[in-house]
Amino acid sequence: MKPKSSAHYQREYRNRLRNQGLVKKEVWVLPEHASELAAIEKRLREKNNQLAQQEREQMITETDRWTTAGLMAALTKTSLVIDGHATTDLIDGIDQALHIVMKDFGDLPVFLTISGEQIIVESVLWSVDEVADLNRFNDAVLRTHKYFPLSTISLDNMGENGDYYHMFGALSARSLLENIVFEIEVLASNVIQATEAYSEYLTTTADTNKH
Q1: Nearest to 79 by CA among 107, 47, 110
Q2: Residue 180, domain CATH
Q3: What pLDDT was estimated at residue 210?
Q4: What is the pLDDT of residues 92-126, one digit of tens each?
Q5: What is the spatial order of strands in the sheet that 97-102 belongs to?
Q6: Number of domains into which the chain is organized
């Protein structure tokens, strides 16, 4: 099945934020403060910060390298999954992966894989066919993707579906669970923001739900 464009999940994400009674406020900060702002925004969305603090204190402080199955088991015990913000499934095969559906971001699918000493968290943006001018778009991405904290953009082949742009983040396979959860949430947020930031370079097909 052909992957849905990130524009679809952007619309679903905005609708869910509105339904939660949240309002959008635009702020301007220096690029080096972007990750701090993302953390502050997350806390301001929480209705009970005391519970969030208790969760941080109870997070696993595992120093051994994570396995895919072990990380899935740990994620199911975090508020990300317990409170219904996301669901996670194990994709079995030669290289195991986690399929994480971010409920608060319009059911955006995020994939997590562990390779050696590295954890990769990624999500599909859109296909090359949905970009109006590849040269202009690639130039814009190279000049601006640094403004999305902890994430970058790649171009990958998806077999019979062709080439797709992905957004991904990487961290150590020995990272604290709290940092992995934060990476997942930041990536989902960045996918939504990237879809808005680069919308002028996309065709109308990328911005309509035809899947």
Answers
A1: 47
A2: 3.30.1460.10
A3: 36
A4: 887 899 999 999 999 999 999 999 899 999 999 99
A5: 86-91, 97-102, 108-115, 118-127, 163-172, 152-157
A6: 1
